[in-house]
């Protein structure tokens, strides 16, 4: 009987491990070159990218490309443009840039709201102070970001303050 309990515990443990630890085999890696128009967006919009060496820029581009292959970006009451996709991916890559093997296995979708929002995800009215958050409960696996804050943050020196919420995913 004790063996049966141990077997049940082992199976449950394995299923929990599988659920929360995406294997590298399901993680897509880029098979095509980094598009030049994406590079132009990085140069124009991402201050951090411009401070990197040539080799670091190539690694940054790879990580941005990889993130975009593995994470869906959905606009909520806003249109998601290529610049938004590159900025979302860049904001994900910056905090983990020096962790070469890091994968965002706990985030599979980013919801992009047009501006700040409140805890009920309302973009109109009072108390709209949230610029980004990581979902839990029914929002598990999702991150919610303000498009307006995202576009402003990466081309200014306000990266640390504005991207603080990204560290919640690490």
Structure description:
- By secondary structure, this protein is of the alpha/beta class.
- It has a single domain, classed as Cyclin A, domain 1 (Orthogonal Bundle).
- The chain has seven helices and four strands, in the order ααααβαβββαα.
- The chain has helices at 2-20, 36-45, 47-50, 54-70, 82-96, 147-153, 159-162, and strands at 72-75, 109-113, 132-134, 142-146.
- Strands 1-2-4-3 form a four-stranded mixed sheet.
- It is globular, with a radius of gyration of 18 Å.
- Mean pLDDT is 76; it is low at 3-7 and 157-170.
Q: What can be said about this structure in brief?
A:
The chain contains 7 helices and 4 strands. It is an alpha/beta fold and 170 residues long. It has a 4-stranded mixed β-sheet.
Shape from CA axes?
Answer: globular
Unreliable stretches: 3-7, 157-170
CATH architecture grouping: Orthogonal Bundle
DSSP strand content: 5-15%
Number of strands: 4
Secondary structure layout plus pairing:
Elements: H1 2-20, H2 36-45, H3 47-50, H4 54-70, E1 72-75, H5 82-96, E2 109-113, E3 132-134, E4 142-146, H6 147-153, H7 159-162
Parallel strand pairs: 1-2, 2-4
Antiparallel strand pairs: 3-4
Helix pairs in contact: 2-5, 4-5
What keyword list fits this structure?
single chain; 170 residues; disordered C terminus; alpha/beta; Cyclin A, domain 1
């Amino acid at each position: 009987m004790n063996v049966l309990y141990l077997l049940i515990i082992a199976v449950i443990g394995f299923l929990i491990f599988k659920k929360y630890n995406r294997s590298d085999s399901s993680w897509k890696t880029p098979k095509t070159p980094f598009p030049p128009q994406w590079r132009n967006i990085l140069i124009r919009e991402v201050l951090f990218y411009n401070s990197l060496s040539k080799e670091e820029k190539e690694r940054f581009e790879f990580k941005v490309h990889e993130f975009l292959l593995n994470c869906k970006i959905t606009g909520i009451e806003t249109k998601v443009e290529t610049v938004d996709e590159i900025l979302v991916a860049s904001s994900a890559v910056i905090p983990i840039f020096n962790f070469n093997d890091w994968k965002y296995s706990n985030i599979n979708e980013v919801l992009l709201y047009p501006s700040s929002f409140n805890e009920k995800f309302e973009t109109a009215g009072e108390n709209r102070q949230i610029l980004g958050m990581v979902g839990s409960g029914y929002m598990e696996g999702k991150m919610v970001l303000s498009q307006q804050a995202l576009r402003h943050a990466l081309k200014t020196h306000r990266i640390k303050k504005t991207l603080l919420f990204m560290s919640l995913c690490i």
